[in-house]
Amino acid sequence: MARNIGSHYTTHRVLGRGSAGTVWLGEGPSGPVAVKVLREDLAADPDLAERFAHERHTLLGLEHPNIVGVHDLVIGGPDARDIALVMDLVRGPDLRSHLERERRLRPHAAVAIVAEVAGGLAVAHAAGIVHRDVKPENILLDTTTPRTRALLTDFGVAKLIDEPRHGGKGGVVGTPDYMAPEIVEGLPPRAAVDIYALITVLYELLAGFTPFGGGHPGAVLRRQVTETAAELPGIPRDLWELMQQCLAKAPASRLRAVELASRLRELLPALEELPPLDLGDPAPADGAGRADGAAEAAVDATDPAAAPGTPARAAVPLVRGAAPDSERATHTRMRVPDADELAGGAHGTARVIRPVGQPRAGSARHGAAARRRRRLAVTAAGLLGAGALGGWLLFSGGEDDGADGLGPAGPGVEQPDDSGAP
Ligand SMILES: Nc1ncnc2c1ncn2[C@@H]1O[C@H](COP(=O)(O)OP(=O)(O)OP(=O)(O)O)[C@@H](O)[C@H]1O
């Protein structure tokens, strides 16, 4: 049923749901738009409404072909409880859905997408805006043009929702798989966190899994701080060197967005003919269950991420709590693993990428449930300080609409036990 948002916009049908609210297809004075209506419980927070109003200028000011433009911010509604962002309508899938379908992208396609997003980030960073939640879910693909265009969305929303409520200490909300080590260490997020996250996305597009994902969110955060990304077999040397530089633990060592965009563009011609990286698992055409077991056979049976009923990855929304307008489960509290647990025990938790055709003995198949995507909101308050850990991880759990996830402990990847389940 059509619903009015402010005096200029009408919403018609749901395009998608995120942790912060629901995105609707809408109509405005100049044509179709996407309208993100924040969750009622968030919108009811007067501080949040105030922050959105305060940042109106920033939210509306970013213009770039690779950034989803925000046209308007509506605060009000019949009961004065709506907060809605009116955005460019992007016709096409988000990068998460695209990757789930493709499983792994050709290096040229992956680098082209990431170079475009880096271009958008460069403009935002120059304006002093850090995205803070770069991940495939926040990259939309416009497929209406002859050449698909990638657009980064949700600018500024992470910061607004993340701010401490009443001047108290806020946690850091983010997505463990893409979270830069300095955030885990409690430092304020600067532009370099977006570079780290974006190159993590590139790694995922090439490999089908993130460098440090899998298992307990606390273990993922620990790996972000302590481990080194495994080199992907067959990746061109100069591309890998650039990726390593942007995955550096020290933020100052990473490239700036503008440099990254141009370096990636320079690499493109040499990547044109390359097929997707061969990590040893025949990609199923439909991206659905790998019923023949050829791929699943490589997954470590001890990996909690591979256990039936355990989510394969942790794509994390911005905010805690269940969306009242979605079917997600309510949030759950869990303890951050202590320093010892986070040290990973004697065996560590880094993935080992095996050479093609070399399955690991004693490995087991993924359960169907292990491929489900789960969303978590993580608050990491001073997670790793002087080697000791404190605080809590707060996460909301629930599955999305049943799309198969790309398990970080994907085929061809070993991930020793890092169980730190609550
Ligand atoms: N500007 C847009 N145009 C078209 N569709 C959009 C637009 N913005 C979002 N969507 C759709 O709505 C879905 C939900 O978007 P939203 O930003 O609320 O959540 P998310 O980024 O997927 O997750 P989260 O907010 O939890 O991190 C997206 O996956 C996409 O399919």
UniProtKB/TrEMBL annotation:
UniProt xrefs under PANTHER family = MITOGEN-ACTIVATED PROTEIN KINASE KINASE KINASE 20-RELATED, SERINE_THREONINE-PROTEIN KINASE NEKL-3
Parts of the chain that traverse the membrane: 376-395
Q: Which SUPFAM superfamilies does the annotation name? A: Protein kinase-like (PK-like) (SSF56112)
The protein, known as: non-specific serine/threonine protein kinase
The entry's keywords: ATP-binding, Kinase, Membrane, Nucleotide-binding, Serine/threonine-protein kinase, Transferase, Transmembrane, Transmembrane helix
For this protein, the record's CDD domains field holds: STKc_PknB_like
Under InterPro entries, the record lists: Kinase-like_dom_sf, Prot_kinase_dom, Ser/Thr_kinase_AS
Q: Does the keyword Membrane apply?
A: yes
Classify the source by domain of life.
Answer: Bacteria
Q: Which terms in the Gene Ontology molecular function aspect does this entry carry?
A: protein serine/threonine kinase activity
- Per the UniProt record, the source organism is Streptomyces johnsoniae
Record-listed E.C. numbers: 2.7.11.1
Q: Which Gene3D superfamilies match?
A: Phosphorylase Kinase, domain 1, Transferase(Phosphotransferase) domain 1
Q: Where is this region: Disordered?
A: 274-313, 397-422
Q: Can you give the residue ranges of the Protein kinase domain?
A: 9-268
